[in-house]
Amino acid sequence: MLVESIIKEISEDVDDVLNTSFAYNSTAVVPNSHDTGLTFERGTVKWGREIDTCVLYVDIRNSVALTAKHQSITMGKIYTAFIKAVIKVGRYHGASTRNIIGDRVMLVFPSNGCFGHALDCAISINHIASKVIAKKFPNVDFKCGIGIDYGTLKVIKVGIERNGIEKSENKGLVWTGNAANLSSRLTDLANKTIEHPYFKVKYKGHDFGLLAGLSGFPLGLQFRKERQFPSYNAFPDSREMEIKMEEAEFAAALSMKTPGVLTFSKGDLISFERVVEKRNYSPIVFTQRVMDGLIRDKSVRAQDDWKVQPGPIRDVNDKVYGGDYTWRI
User: Fold this and answer.
1) Do residues 217 and 259 share a domain?
2) 146-198 pLDDT per residue, tens
3) pLDDT at 236
4) 36 belongs to a structural domain
5) What is the mean predicted confidence (pLDDT) over 191-212?
6) Which domain holds residue 115?
7) Angstrom distance (rounded) from CA 243 to CA 247
8) Among 115, 136, 188, 259, which is least packed, fewest CB within 10 Å?
9) Are 54 and 148 in contact (CB under 8 A)?
């Protein structure tokens, strides 16, 4: 079969990648596909670039629902106007456009002054979305969400070399690092109201640390699960507690070692209630790392009234800030 030859060729390509060393040169300038410091994998070393900077993602809110509701001609005009505006305003604030997927645009900034430039760019995009495009398309509920993070990005060139009109379509750049991943994730939340379920749990807990000094009570047992001691309710320090637990956390705390008997790892389960919390996120959201950079640079943006956003947010361990700023023009 003819397909066997292409599968064999691809298998050899994978072997070549496995046997190739990857090396990165630092830069403060945003790499592009013509950067001579970026190479394909054929050979002994595949060279990439490494840059510490801010990444901004932006996309249109509820684009699928908007497309279903409005004519394709209208949405085509909105996509065209919005993406063109983002690219232009990004360039004005010193950013380079490095990815366009549907209605989502990725902007990367040069390292120097990236914090203030990224926030200024976000405010400009928010202004254009809410005060220009939304007003020119009054029958469309047009909004966008913007997410920003800062960190180390490793950049490599991927694809294959081809000539002719398909040349640029068969190669591109891959940006790896938390800054790219988390800014994209924040964009998914920005300018949205998210329903977040959790469990409100009441249980009777017990602090075995108080018993460690009792005669005959082994010190090593004080950290064991309470349910392993069936008589703990007789101790005077048993108390009723109420906590909030994420769905996965609550599920992990439940077990049924005996058929029909539900046990709770923290103590005697009294009651639990599933609650759905509505979390509102600002149109512009960014990480603590960006805020820290603004403060270090003594940027005027650090003085704006950015609000701490609801959490927790998956894979984000620090605070996330947000706001709905536009320019006074």
Assistant:
1) yes
2) 999 999 999 998 887 666 666 656 778 999 999 999 999 999 999 999 998 99
3) 46
4) yes
5) 79
6) 3-192+281-323
7) 12
8) 259
9) yes
